[in-house]
Amino acid sequence: MDFGTLDFGTLSFAPALDAPELVAAPVRAALDGSAATDVYAAAIDPALADTAAFCEHYGIGLADGANCVIVEAKRGDSSWYAACLVLGHERIDVNSLVRKHLGAKKVSFAPMEAAVQLTGMEYGGITPIGLPESWTLLIDESVAAAPMLIIGSGVRDSKILTSGAFLASLPGAEVIGLVKRQEG
């Protein structure tokens, strides 16, 4: 789906391929030469990169964005990293759903320093686009179903607008339920 140049909240988004300076180097590398026609970027105030402040300032609902969380999984002497993507108003179920899906004995949020070093992105801007190819990328079903949503760009001074379908097509992506939902 091609959204064209568009406004969302109070932001104006341009095609990310036309504004490579707005995304981190690993994101640029992942988008370079791709057919990422539904990936857009907009500059923001880096002091407002965190979800709640960003949404309030730019007139965007929490459900219109997704957060990328890096986790460290452990089993025996082995440890590995994965990324999880959930809507901004939902809480990821790390200790049950993510742990079981990754086949880990223990899963915890990755330390900030490790997340930054391993992704090559800024904390508060980490995005699923351009993550290490060996990582599993778990995407919540509600994210994959979104026609468009806002995610990090790898840096704190911009955001990306894209479709859930594009995110579900990323290398290593698996669409599963990551949030405990109330039944009934």
Automatic annotation (TrEMBL):
Pfam families: tRNA_edit (PF04073). Gene3D superfamilies: YbaK/aminoacyl-tRNA synthetase-associated domain (3.90.960.10). SUPFAM superfamilies: YbaK/ProRS associated domain (SSF55826). Residues 46-165 form the YbaK/aminoacyl-tRNA synthetase-associated domain. PANTHER family: CYTOPLASMIC PROTEIN. This is Prolyl-tRNA editing enzyme YbaK/EbsC (Cys-tRNA(Pro) deacylase). It comes from Paeniglutamicibacter kerguelensis.
